Amino acid sequence: MKSSARLAWALSTAAATFWSANAQGVTTSTGLRPSLTVSSTSGSHSATGAATPTTSSQNTDTSIVTATPSVTASLGDPLPSQAALPPVQAWCPSKIFCAGKILQTINVASPYPDSKTIVDKPTNGTASSAIAAFDAFGNNVTYGQVVDFLEDHFQGEGLELEATTLSNFPASPAAFARIPDPYVKGFTLAVHKIWNLLIRDTNESQICMGGECESSLIPLNHTFVVPGGRFREQYYWDSKFILDGLLKSELYSVANSTLHNFMDEIERFGFIPNGGRIYYLNRSQPPVFITMVLSYYNQTQDAATLSRALPIMEKELTWWQTNRSVRIKSPYTNQTRVVYHYNVNNTAPRPESYAEDYEAANGADLSTPYTDAEKGALYAELASGAESGWDYSSRWAKNPHLGDATNQTPLLRTLNVRNTTAVDLNAILYKAHIDLAKLYTFSAKSLARRVLKRADEEKASYHRDQAAMLKTAILDLFWDKDRLGFYDFNTTSNARNEQLTAAHWYPLWAGIIPNEVKSNATAAFGAFSSLNLVMRKYNGTIPATFITTGLQWDFPNAWPPHIYFALEALANVPANVSRAAIPTPQDGNSWNLLPSNHLGITQDQLPLQTTDGNNTAPAGSDINALNGTVYNGGNATEGEGWVKELQREIANRYMTSVFCSWYATGGELPGLLPRLSNDTLNLTSSTDQNGHLFEKFSALDVDSAGRGGEYAVQAGFGWTNGVLLWIASEYKDVLVRPICPNITEQAISANANTPNGGVARVIVHGVLFGLVACVLTAVGMLL
After folding, report:
1. Could you tell me which of 211, 161, 205, 262 has the C-alpha nearest to residue 17?
2. Dihedral sign of CA atoms 569, 546, 774, 743 in order
3. Sign of dihedral through CA atoms 109, 110, 115, 119?
4. Which whole number is the average pLDDT over 352-375?
5. pLDDT single digits (tens) 56-76
6. 748 vs 744, 757, 760, 769, CA distance in Å?
7. How do the residues of the chain divide into helix, strand and coil, expressed in percent and rounded to 5?
8. Does residue 632 contact residue 738 with C-beta atoms inside 8 Å?
9. What's the rounded Cα separation, in Å, for the pair 774 and 402?
10. How far is CA 720 from the centre of its chain?
């Protein structure tokens, strides 16, 4: 399909008309990431000398994983009674893939483990024929009718996308050529090759045109990279970390096409949606596009792409200013500040998580049923949490300690996202202004005409001024000089939140270094002391929070973006306050190095590290501390200072987490590291697998995926790969071979401490958590 034809298509002619008329008023969509798909690059936008994509002739429909509907009730049984339908959402006009009677009825029947499955399945005929068939069921729909409806009227999920093979794929990019450790180098190159499994193009032959069928896909004009698993389309903030890895892999054309896809979306919708589906069109995600453009330009000096991007970047910033800004009178300075929050206009369950949202608002466990207004408010909170990218976390809850690892719904009902002014969002937008000013300066230097040069210089000055105002607001509302941390500001309580989260690293990454940190070495270390605690008390890497709730953006889950932000935050610490070694803590307990109330919890509330089986380490024990380093933290170096020591330890611990979970699920390095035996891999249910790179990891161990959340753990995985390749390039000289746990010994230990024997494998090895789902959703990519 030609670019112009594809852009003319939305989900149908009616939807295209709706969006062209309402683009400026649209709100963005966030949250989830789909599985594997690809799109090819337009020649006019490809970078010179880069590998170019071609659609693989080997990619047929056999690579599409099609879920089969299955219900637990008898097929002849009628569905249980339903709650009243939510209001029609103007931004989502499909009667099939948006909130309405069809989607609600299907989700009440629960024919698939994942709510996202149905909304990713294109119809096999016209929308009107599918709607008519559903209407013919009448009011007493049975489970069997739902199953028949799905089998008769829908195709395989993700059918509209196809894998793309790159010609001249770089075998050994320069960024990885000089990695000293052979195991780290071998693994890095293995991860580099996985881009071939994640690059997608729109499948021209499967796009619904002229009303012949209906799909939720937003077709893209250029090649892109998908995260993996159920996240089978392009996602917004995932792509920032993917792009960092693509640049290290010298895949400049794919990085270029990623940016042009986003520019197309901004021109069309006024913003970048959460992901590439129509059901994401009411929300965005953390606005990292401008930072992506700067990273790409710094690497390629691509003036043509910069020229196109400049006015489009302005348009995105305008969208955030118009739709997500809020004025807050500071209780600390009595000054009114303009800052930003996630605030999605939504009064219905998210289509991709319809069953989960519906249950939260209509669950039988509610002592008093919600009113329509209360349901609408909850749906808005759920969508706003998805827009944040942190879906979900105790940081958004009115009572963060309400969580129960076995049931997160009560905590979700207390979400207060819209009244939480997120420190990370404001830091990202601060850096967007700084980076856009830099890009205007680069543009001005390349312009010969004095008038145009002066115009770009003036715009650069404007964005520096905007950044300065936002920096002042961030330091006022979010920075606590006594606790030495950045904390979200809560407009409900008119105060900063108590708990420290990984969002603390974002302002420091953006270059906002408080005076207390700049001028005092003790305070500077104090601001980063939680990283020291994690490295010494836990086996894994940096958690999103220190509160255990069962939500996926809480302890123990550790996410690749946070590793990146923490390392870059450390890189911004001034040299004059970073030369000393890490202090020796009182009683050998790194908790004692934290500033008062830094984490917002007591030491008794700090999650404990599991040791063997179900045992835990003592609360005051730094079980991973070694002389000048930590376990799986690389080799100590004389005189490196506390910043470089923490960077080395974090980089190695992340490399270890990705490597060991991959190795424990069937990975191998031919000629260097043999695959584990089938007897051993049987303990992680991986005898038929070739190694998984997961979307999230754990603070508690280095050979497992993260846990919790509203969907199973996903493999692939775009941002995991991107951050690993970035770390391999930036920290290559301090990376050493990871030391992985002995899987057999862990299983024996767990069985000895667990009455049910083998059931303990799921507890000890998080790699098992969701592994079946990984196989179901990603086998077509990973085999």
Report:
1. 211
2. positive
3. negative
4. 97
5. 322 323 355 689 999 999 999
6. 6, 9, 9, 18
7. 50, 10, 45
8. yes
9. 30
10. 9
